[in-house]
Structure formats: C-alpha cells, structure tokens
Amino acid sequence: MQATFTAHAAFTIGTVDRRLFGSFVEHMGRCVHTGVFEPGHPRADEAGLREDVLELTREMGVTLVRYPGGNFVSGYRWEDGVGPVEDRPRRLDLAWRSVESNAFGLHEFLGWARKAQVEPMMAVNLGTRGPQEAADLVEYANHPGGTRLSDLRRAHGSPDPFGIRLWCLGNEMDGPWQLGAKTADEYGRLAAETAKVMRLVDPTIELVACGSSMRSMATFGGWEATVLDHCFDQVDLLSLHAYYEEHDEDLAGFLATSLDMDAFIDEVVATVDHVAAKKRSRKRLKLSFDEWNVWFQRAFAGPEAQTWEDEPRLIEDTYDVAAAVVVGTYLITLLRHADRVSVACQAQLANVIAPIRTEPGGSAWRQTIFHPFAHAARFARGEVLRLAVASPTYAAEPYGDVPVLDAVATHDPETGDVTVLAVNRGLTEPLELTGALHGLGPLELVEHLTLAADGDPRRTNTEEHPEAVLPRRVDGSRVVDGELRATLPPLSWNVLRLG
Ligand code: AHR
C-alpha cells in the first residue's frame, strides 16, 4: 500500500500551543493516593510526592495538569484540603463512593506541579457550590495578601500567590450523573455569574466553560449554544470530553475512532462560531479538550459498585499496542485543530486510565500509551502544517471511508526542524509513505521511531515486564530530492524527525 502527502512551509494551520500536552489528576481511585502521592513510599520526598512518578511525568513532557476533578470536584470543598493535615476532615466522596482523607490538597498539588514542571489548571465546584466559594478559592490562591483568605494561604506556608491562571467552571454539568447537574440555561447563567465574580478577584485568569461531556449526549449542540448564549462574553474556552474503546473486537473500527473526535471538534467550532455570529462578535472562542483517552468503560461497574474505600482500584485499564496507536491518532487530531484547540488533557495521569501505573510501595512504569504522548510533546513544535494527504481507505461503520494513513507535520521556524507524526491503520500491510516537502529548506532524516504491533497488537507493559513494549528505530527511511520516503509498519505509530 502507498500513501502520499504534500507539505509547504507557507500552508499552516496554527501554532502548537504547549498546553495541548496536558494531563489530569483527579481525586479518583489511585490517581492521587498511591499514584502521585504516597507518604512513606521509598521514593517519596519529604512532602510524600513520589519522585518516580514525577520523573515519568517530566519525561512524558506533560505541560499542564487539570485538578482536582472530574466528577469529584462537583462535591468538593476546597477548604478541606488546606491547613494542618491533622485537622483535615475525612469526607465521603459521593462521586466515586470513596473516602477522601484530604491529606493531599491545594498546597500539595501546587508543590507537585512545581516539581513536575507543569502549569496548574484548577476546576471549581459548580455542582453543589457556587460563585462565592469559587471566588474565595481565587482569593485564597491568587490574591497577594492583606485579606482573610490570602493571609490564610500565607499562614499555611505559601507567602507568594500561586498565580493560577487557567480555571474550569465546573465539570460535565450536562451529565445526569454529575452532583448538582444543571440544564443548559441554569449552567449558562451560573457560569456567567461565577466568571464575573472570579474575574473581579483576579482579572488575569482564563476561564473554561463546560461543553458536553460527550458527543453522544442527547443535548449535544444545543447545550453548547445555550450555555454560550449566557456566558460567551465571560469565558475564554469551551470544554470537550471524549473517551473511546474497542467494541466487539473490531480493531479496524477502534482505529477509526479519531474520526469521531475530529467531527466532534468541527461541530463544536461551528456551534461556538454560530453563537459569535448571533452576537455579532469577532471573538473566536478556543476549545479545551480537557478529558480525552481510551477507556474500556464496559469493564467498569460504575461508582454504584464502590464501597467507601480510601483508594480503591478504579478503572486501572491496561493498554496494549493497539490502544497506543489509537492514542497517537487522537494526538494527531488535536494537533490538526491547533487553530482552535489550545488546551487538551489526557485523562488521567496515574493509575486511573493512565499512561503511568504504580503499585503501592512498589514501582512505577510506562504504559504503552505513554510513548506517543511523550513523542508528540517532545517533537511537535512550532507551526502545524496543513498536509494534503492521499491515502488508501477502508470501510468501518459508522465512520465510512477511513484513511489508512493518519498524519500531521510540524515545522519549527526557529530550528528549521520538521516532525511528521504518522499512523498506519492497516492491520497487516506496511504503508509506503512519500512526502513532498516544499519551502522547508534542505532536510535530512534525523530518525524514524515507531511503536508497532510487530505481529501482536495485544502486547502490554506490566509491573513484571515494564519495558515489554518500547518504541524502536526504523532503518531505511530517508529524504531524497526534497521527498521523504518511509515505510510504516503494519498497525504502527511513527515519528519521522527531519532537520
Ligand atoms: O476521568 C474519569 C471521569 O470521566 C471524570 O471524573 C469525569 O469528568 C468523566 O466522566
């Protein structure tokens, strides 16, 4: 099979926002407790932060982390997580039917974020709480001092304001499962008023309103339009969430799910621009795809099955090579929408549907899906190029004709480096790729990396065999007369670095 693309330095989509390589730490299962935080672990620092997880987070290239939920935030009292640890209350977490010790809270998260070298993205509770508590949290976190809440932060050991810039106005407020779920009109008004008071405390913050929790919600489309009718002028971004899984062992269909993500983004862009048109506004709202991943949801019994444990093993999905290739297609899709998607968070970071797995008291390791994320975060830099792609297709319901090649390229004008990220969705045949490179200067291949099925797409990394699946170098790829020539192995994620 053969596929081609044509790239030109002048044909760009947008700049790669570094915040596209975000992740998510929720108080859920073992993401926080025994994930990023485990006092007494042999690799824990004096604050109880696991250094092994911090090292992997930095290696993965995560730039931003959303916290503290997720469904969890819709019942959360942020005050429970500040002050002397011995005074913090144990609480029922109604979202996940777990018990939250609150030993890890705002200060611990920001200490972790500093060490992980990531920007914090903070969510406020708009489920069971409202504008006052949200404004209080902004005052506590960002006001320099001289007021009750900012002085409390200082008394709790943080004299300097945290300066948290990016804030989510609640989480999945359209979902009937959400604590304090709302209609679009109720949420839109609440988001507008909450944004107003939070901005009165700190005018420099950026605000994300909740879009639909998935494209298949019955209210999708109407939800976005109605919410933005109320809060368009007050917010900067609108959220999208999407999780995908394989159905009925239909791997070809699973590999096509990024087409759903692609359509979802296009539809949300159309909807937010429709609201702009109605308002005669030139503002072009950005999108925050702040939960995305592969999640084998059918294997999850749901929160109803939980029994008020402290750190239950919740949705600790083990990912294989096929899932990693699928994750690669989501990264490609996000980058191809760099003109409108400026924030994205893979959900979640540790243990809970996560690229990093840990054992309590034991090791931490990279799941297969760690690798495409780390490659994209490290090598996709500068401008996203608008590729003209010609690829064979295959039929997969409900997607129609699915291109075998999925690809995106970036060009860093400062270094001249070009990175091509490419997936061969073909299950059995290699894909001969030819890429015409125009206006990009003389280029040579630096390296071709692949994560490939190599005959067994079900291979995984485990505690016993943490490096069973690793990216490998591919020989033979080259640039000849301004043309990239490479062979993409069957069912593979590829990074072609040119410089
Ligand atoms: O990431 C797991 C959960 O999925 C989050 O808590 C929620 O926002 C979404 O439904």
Automatic annotation (TrEMBL):
Signal peptide from the UniProt entry: none
E.C. no: 3.2.1.55
GO MF, one annotated term: alpha-L-arabinofuranosidase activity
Domain Alpha-L-arabinofuranosidase C-terminal, chain residue ranges per copy: 290-492
Gene Ontology BP annotations: L-arabinose metabolic process; polysaccharide catabolic process
Superkingdom, taxonomy of origin: Bacteria
Alphabetical list of InterPro entries matching this protein: Alpha-L-AF_C (IPR010720), ASD1_cat (IPR055235), GH (IPR017853), Glyco_hydro_b (IPR013780)
Reactions that this protein is recorded to catalyse: Hydrolysis of terminal non-reducing alpha-L-arabinofuranoside residues in alpha-L-arabinosides
Keyword terms: Carbohydrate metabolism, Glycosidase, Hydrolase
Family, similarity comment: Belongs to the glycosyl hydrolase 51 family.
Subunit structure: Homohexamer; trimer of dimers.
Stated name of the protein: non-reducing end alpha-L-arabinofuranosidase
